[in-house]
C-alpha cells in the first residue's frame, strides 16, 4: 500500500493505463472525481444489500475502483475490487484522516502457485464435468492433463438419491470409465461414520430412495420399519407422507438423527430445481424442532473420508465445483484448496452473496489445463 497526493492522481492513472475509473462514495462526496463513472450510495445499507448494489452497479470493464466513504464502504469495495481484479484506490481522508489517496494493488492468487502442491482433484459432477448429463467438450482433456501431470482425480457427489453403480454407469456412458474407489458419494461418508459410532445391532429408519436403503443394507447396517435407534434422512425422491410422519415421530421421541447431504435444491434440466435433502430437513425441523448434522460437502466428514480413502494429505487436495456453499465451503478453514468453476450453478455474484471466497475462480476446467 502506498499513498499518493491527490494532484498526482491523473498522472498515476495514466501510468496504470487506466482508461476508466469507477467511483463509489456516499452522498457527502458525490461531486468528487467528475471524470469517473459513479455510484452514490444514498442511505445506510445492510452488508449483503450493499454488496449486491455495488456488484450490480460497478462495470467490471473499468480498470480502477475508487472509493470515498466510511470504513464499511471502503472494506466492501476492496473486496469487490479484488474479485473483479480492479486496481483499488481509497480516498483516505475520510477513512484514516491521512492526507491523500491510498492505493492498493489487488492480486488474485497465482493459479500455478496454488496448484503446485495439489496431488488430488476432487471433482464435483453436475455443473463441473457435465451439465444436464452432457459432458463438457473439455472434460476429457482436463482429466488427461491431470493424469499426464502425475496427479490424480476422483469424483464426488452429494446426491444421496442414487447409488454408486448409477454414477459409474453414467461416467462409463460418457466415455470416462472410472474405478470404484474413484467415485465417492456422500452416502459412503455417513455410512462410514455410523459404522464407527454405533454397534452392529443398531437399527436405522431411513427416509430415502431404494438406492439409499440398499447402500445401507449392503454396508451391513440394519434398516427397520419400526422402532429404530437412529433416523436417517436422505435426498428422498420417493418421499411419502407416511415416511415423513413416521420419521418425525421417531425424531420427536428422541432417536438419534442424521442427514446425508445439506443441499436445499437439486439442479434439473433447463435451469429447474427440485427440493433436496436440506429442504426436507427444514420441514422436519418445523414439526420436531430438531435439525440434523449432515455428512456430504461441506461437512468436515467429507474431507476426512476423502483423506482416508485416497491416502492424500489435506494440503494435497483441491475441491473443484460450481456451488459455493458446498463445493467451495468444504475447504474453508482447512488446508485443502477450493477451485470454483463458472460452468454450473454459481455465478460470480454468488461469491459476494455468500461471502465465501474460493482460492481460485476460473471459467471452467479448461482454464486449469495450461497450469497443470
Ligand atoms: Mg455441481
Computed structural class: alpha/beta
Gyration radius over CA: 25 Å
- Anisotropy-based shape: globular
Which stretches are poorly predicted, pLDDT < 50 over at least 5 residues?
A: none
The biggest beta sheet is recorded as: 6 strands, mixed
Could you tell me the CATH topology label of the largest domain: Rossmann fold
How many discrete domains?
Answer: 3
**Share of helix among residues?**
25-40%
Mean pLDDT: 89
| Distance between the ends | 32 Å
- Give the strand order, joined by hyphens, for the main sheet: 1-6-5-4-2-3
The number of helical elements comes to 14
CATH class of the largest domain: Alpha Beta
State which percent range the strand residues make up: 15-25%
Ligands bound here?
A: magnesium ion
Task: Pick out its properties.
372 residues; alpha/beta; Rossmann fold; 3 domains; 6-stranded mixed beta sheet; 14 helices; globular; binds magnesium ion
Structure, explained:
By secondary structure, this protein is of the alpha/beta class. It has 3 domains: 103 residues, 3-Layer(aba) Sandwich (Rossmann fold), CATH 3.40.50; 121 residues, 3-Layer(aba) Sandwich (Rossmann fold); 108 residues, Rossmann fold (3-Layer(aba) Sandwich). The chain is 35% helix and 22% strand. The chain is built from 14 helices and 21 strands. A 6-stranded mixed beta sheet has the order 1-6-5-4-2-3, with helices on both faces. The chain has a 6-stranded parallel beta sheet with strand order 11-10-7-19-20-21. Helix 13 links the parallel strand 20 and strand 21. The radius of gyration is 25 Å and the shape is globular. The chain binds magnesium ion (MG). Magnesium ion binds next to loops.
Amino acid at each position: 500500500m502506498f499513498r499518493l497526493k491527490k494532484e498526482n492522481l491523473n498522472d498515476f492513472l495514466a501510468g496504470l493505463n487506466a482508461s476508466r475509473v469507477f467511483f463509489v462514495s456516499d452522498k457527502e462526496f458525490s461531486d468528487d472525481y467528475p471524470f469517473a463513472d459513479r455510484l452514490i450510495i444514498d442511505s445506510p445499507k445492510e452488508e449483503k444489500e450493499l454488496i449486491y448494489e455495488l456488484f450490480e452497479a460497478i462495470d467490471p470493464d473499468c480498470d480502477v475502483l475508487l472509493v470515498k466513504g466510511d470504513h464499511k464502504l471502503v472494506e466492501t469495495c476492496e473486496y469487490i475490487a479484488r474479485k473483479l481484479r480492479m486496481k483499488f484506490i481509497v480516498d483516505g481522508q475520510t477513512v484514516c484522516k491521512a492526507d491523500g489517496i491510498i492505493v492498493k494493488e489487488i492480486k488474485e492468487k497465482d493459479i500455478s502457485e496454488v496448484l503446485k502442491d495439489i496431488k488430488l482433484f476432487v471433482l464435483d459432477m453436475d455443473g463441473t464435468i457435465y451439465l444436464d448429463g452432457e459432458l463438457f467438450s473439455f472434460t476429457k482433456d482436463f482429466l488427461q492433463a491431470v493424469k499426464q501431470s502425475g496427479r490424480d482425480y476422483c469424483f464426488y457427489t452429494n446426491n444421496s438419491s442414487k447409488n454408486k453403480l448409477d454414477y459409474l454407469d453414467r461416467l462409463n456412458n460418457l466415455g470416462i470409465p472410472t474405478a470404484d474407489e474413484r467415485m465417492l458419494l456422500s452416502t459412503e461418508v455417513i455410512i462410514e461414520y455410523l459404522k464407527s459410532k454405533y454397534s452392529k445391532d443398531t437399527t436405522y429408519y431411513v427416509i430415502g430412495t431404494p438406492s439409499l436403503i440398499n447402500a445401507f443394507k449392503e454396508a451391513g447396517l440394519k434398516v427397520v420399519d419400526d422402532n429404530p435407534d437412529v433416523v436417517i434422512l436422505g435426498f428422498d425422491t420417493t418421499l411419502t407422507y407416511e415416511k415423513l410422519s413416521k420419521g418425525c415421530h421417531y425424531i420427536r421421541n428422541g432417536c438419534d438423527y442424521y442427514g446425508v447431504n445439506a443441499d436445499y435444491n437439486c439442479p434439473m434440466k433447463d435451469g429447474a430445481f427440485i427440493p433436496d435433502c436440506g429442504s426436507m430437513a427444514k420441514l422436519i425441523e418445523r414439526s420436531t424442532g430438531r435439525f440434523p448434522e449432515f455428512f456430504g460437502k461441506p461437512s468436515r466428514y467429507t474431507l476426512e473420508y476423502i483423506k482416508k480413502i485416497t491416502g492424500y494429505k489435506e494440503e494435497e487436495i483441491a475441491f473443484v465445483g460450481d456451488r459455493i456453499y458446498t463445493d467451495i465451503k468444504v475447504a474453508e478453514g482447512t488446508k485443502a484448496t477450493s477451485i470454483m468453476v463458472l460452468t454450473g450453478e454459481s455465478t460470480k455474484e454468488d461469491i459476494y452473496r455468500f461471502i465465501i471466497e474460493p482460492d481460485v475462480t476460473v471459467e471452467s476446467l479448461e482454464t486449469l489445463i495450461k497450469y497443470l
